User: What shape does this take?
Amino acid sequence: MDAIVVQGGRRLHGEVTISGAKNAALPILAAALLVREGRCCFRNIPRLRDIATICTLLETMGARIEVAGEQVEIDAGAVERPEAPYELVKTMRASILVLGPLLARGGRARVSLPGGCAIGARPVNLHIHGLEMMGAEIKVEHGYIHGRCQRLRGADITFDLPTVTGTENLMMAATLAAGTTVLRNAAREPEICDLAACLRLMGARISGDGSDTIVIEGVDELQPVTYEIMPDRIEAGTFIAAAGITGGEIRIHNCPARVMGAEINKLQEAGLEIEREDAADGERLAGTTVLVRGGRSLRGVDVKTMPYPGFPTDMQAQLMVLMCLAAGTSVISETVFENRFMHVFELQRMGADIEVEGRSAIIKGVKMLTGAPVMASDLRASACLVLAGLAAAGETRVNRVYHLDRGYFQFERKLQALGAEIRRVRAGNS
Ligand code: EPZ
Assistant: This one.
């Protein structure tokens, strides 16, 4: 397994361009299953391990896929195996996103239960319950979800809690259902709006995306499209935190600042200077440039992770590592996932003063972190440990960086270009 080795103490400076959003790309690539005839072309797709996984999954179903750089073309016309096998699903939970589209396009699906991961149990009961309300017969046995239906029918569904991929799965399923579907207590993440915009371009009739109530009027078929996905707000937030923790100054291009209000406000409260350089056109997500200065001393802040538009759980670890070096005490409460503090134990090994009490971590700022060999446990924890290494005295070796490669394209190269002393070490080399 590859590792990343960082020599700390360098201030980052220069420019970085944010890649396409992983969590917009995954549902949008799955949506290609809803197009029974013709070839979809998706642009600004990040070259990530998870993207490769969903492309492999779609190919095993029979879809024809062509990947050229950040463009993915998919013809799902020949899909004849509506299955998502355990071997693939166990490497990427988001594979569950093919369930709704498969039932909508052909009335059959056999999808492995995703199972849990490092950050929590990650159940999919809300996905299943919603599809049953739309008329699907679903059996869960031997670790697989077996679904079948004639044609899904519209339903009025209220989620127990705002689930991002649950909202996406049912929104996709509803586009080809007979009648109207209402999703209440729906998630409001920007990636859901990106998916809805793509589905509307395909001919779907969707309104209310971005609010907690989404209305979808079913149609008989969807058309192939060319669509460019939004930039990744979590990658952008990670680079803002990198400027903050190294006291550097970086210009971030393609930063979707308009949908990053909670994290930008919180990072400004922590002492970062963050300003948009083209405030004029707030509407466009791509193309916004943000200048970040981290030179001032960091101040401790309190935060609770919440569904959008609250502070995103995917930025929790990146904020925590900043707070390790901030003046004062901070309290970070993780309300979305039950086990998303695995990075705490690794940060403690680097000299951080953190105590976990239930769903909250209490962080007392220290003068310095010291480099150490550490273990990545999940995608965002990996990024947080690299950020810690950028600021720590000495050398940090982050092991198991395959987690990082799931969600960050060439992370170490982008950091190198900003002046970091960082390199990837292939498994087995020193
Ligand atoms: C999406 O996961 C993201 N993944 C996650 O990003 C992100 O952390 C999460 O939303 C929260 O924002 C993708 O979009 C591919 P949820 P998802 O369903 O949809 C509970 C990353 O780092 N729940 O919104 O799986 C669940 O246990 C990843 O890129 C049920 O109880 O998250 C959790 O406590 C990590 N039953 C809460 O809802 C269900 O059927 C929110 O989960 C579904 C969810």
